[in-house]
Amino acid sequence: MAKWKVVLTDRQFNSIDDERAILEAIGAELLDYQIQDEDSLIKLFKEVNPDAVIMQYANLSRRVIESMPNCQIIAKYAIGLDRIDIPAATENNVCVSNVRDYCIDEVSTHTVALILAITRKITVLNRETKLGNWSYKNMGSVRNLRGLTLGLNSFGKIAQLVAEKMAPYGINIIAYDPFVPADVAAAKGIKLVSFDELVEQSDILSTHVPDMDGTRGMFNKSVFKRMKNTSYLINTGRGPVVNELDLIEALKSGEIAGAALDVTDPEPIQPDNPLCSMNNVIITPHAAYYSDDSEKTLKILTAENVAQRLQGYAPRFLANPELKEKLSLKTLTE
C-alpha cells in the first residue's frame, strides 16, 4: 500500500511516466485526473484526501485548499504561481512550489522570434506569397531595427536574456522593473526607466510580468494612447496583463502598429476573436515555454518538489519559505 496519495489535477502532457517513476520510487501513488473547476476539485479532494497535489491550470482557491486537510504541498507545472491562493496555502501549512529556472532560454528565444516576425512582417509575407502575390510591397511600412528602442516590462531572467539576444541587432534597450536595482541593470548595459517612460519611448514593448493584482490589465486604453502609433506590443508573459478589448480598439484605431501574443485571456483564444483576423497581429498558442528538453525538465522538477516535501525536506522551489522553519523542514543538503 502506498505511503502517500498524490493527485494530478490536470495536465496537457501526453505522458506522466517521469513523474510516476519519481513518486513511486518513494512509495507515493500518482492519481491522474483532468479537473480544473473548484467544485469538482473540492468533491475529488474530499473523496481522495491527497497528501500532495500537482496542477497545471486548475484553480486552487481558498475553498479548494481548505478541502484537503492532509495536503503537504501544491506543486505547479510552471514558473508563475497564478491560480493558487498562496496566503491560504500558507495558513494551512501547505507548501507551494513552482519551477523557476526552466524554459528561460525557450521563452526568450520565442520572444525574439515574435519581435522579428512582427517587425519584418514575416507572417504577412508568407501568407501573401503562398497566395501568389510575389512582392515585397506586401510588407507595407517596415523600419530597420537598428536604432529603435526595445522596452522590457520587467527585467527578470527571461527579459535579461531577451536583452542579450536582441543587443546584436543594434537596438536600444530600456527596462521598467521597480524590484531591480539600477546598478544591476546598468551592469548589463540596460537603463531602467519609469513605466511611463517605457510606454512612451518604446518602439517595441515586450512584457514579461506575472499575472497578479498589480499587473492585471496594466496594458489598457490609457497606456495604448501613450504608446507610439508605430510601436508593437509583445506578450509572452501572461494574458490577463493586457486588456484585450482595449488592445483590439487600439489596433483598429491605429494607436499602435501591431501585437505579437503567445498568451491571451481567456485561453484558448476563440477563432471568431477580432485579433485572429488582423494582419498586424501574430498569435501563438502559449507555446513559448516549449521544447522537448524544457518539458521533460519541468515534469521532473515538479515531481521532485513533491517527493522532497513528502520526505520531510523543503522543496527546491518553495514559494512560501516561511513554512520551512515553521514545519521544521530539512534542507536538501542534510
Structural summary, described in words:
Residues 112-288 form the D-isomer specific 2-hydroxyacid dehydrogenase NAD-binding domain. This is C-terminal binding protein. By secondary structure, this protein is α/β, with parallel strands linked by helices. Helices cover 35% and strands 14% of the residues. It is built from 13 helices and twelve strands. The protein has a seven-stranded parallel beta sheet with strand order 8-7-6-9-10-11-12, with helices on both faces. The chain has a five-stranded parallel beta sheet with strand order 2-1-3-4-5. Strand 4, helix 4 (86-91) and strand 5 (95-97) form a beta-alpha-beta unit. The longest helix has 19 residues, at 292-310. The protein is elongated. It starts with a strand and ends in an 8-residue tail after the last helix.
Helical proportion? 25-40%
- Rg, Å, rounded: 22 Å
Tertiary shape: elongated
Count of individual helical segments: 13
Strand composition percent: 5-15%
Describe the largest sheet.
7 strands, parallel
Largest sheet, spatial ordering of strands: 8-7-6-9-10-11-12
What's the helix-strand series?
EHEHEHEHEHHEHEHEHEHEHEEHH
Low-confidence stretches: none
Termini Cα gap: 28 Å
Can you describe this structure in just a few lines?
The protein is 35% helix and 14% strand.
